[in-house]
Predict the structure.
Amino acid sequence: MSELLFLIGTSKKENMKDYVRLVISDLHLGSYYSKEKKLYDLLKSVEFDELILAGDVIDFIKVPMFTKTSYKIFDLLSKLNKKIIYIVGNHDIAFKEFVDTNLLNVDFRDRYDFDYGGRKYRIEHGDAYEKGMVHWHFFMNAFSVFQDTFERCFKFNLGSWYAKHLEKKRKLIRIWDIVKWNDDVDVFIMGHTHKPEVLIWVDANEQIKTYANTGDWIDNCTYILIKDNQLRLRRWK
């Protein structure tokens, strides 16, 4: 079951059967609070032609502990006869050397650009737009191992607490600057912040621009569908 959070675009279809893209990020598979059951239900229930995994899919920088549901998700993905794009994030940076290669029908990318409905789209993970500790890979790995151990021992979601209570201190570059650096596209989509949102405006050239964040599968269980010339931000209940 899904709840529509935001929808942009027009209802005009390009083809009799429109091409559907499903965009999800920040799944953090293997971490203690990953919503694997809901994710599996989503992948089984939503119809799509292309799956775009926008980073932090597997939580390699922690000590990932996989479950039977993890296996079901990996098994489902391995049997999908669909295009799969994997954008490497900061938590699955172990796949960095796979960028621009194809493995088991999965295309690994730093970013993904495509045209659809007369608009140019770009999808990235988003860690490139954050300053500070997120780029100290050794420190982040050590801290994430501590975080994982703390969460499993004390059953306290330290990651979500940090996101909610220290969000103002995060040195994330302003959305306006992110979009300015991606001015060659009409729609820019990212994850990383775990904050599902959509921002739409008209630029100086009277062009409609869109920024969207996919959210995460720790707290929000949100995703983006791109179909029927529309971008839909939805929450899986």
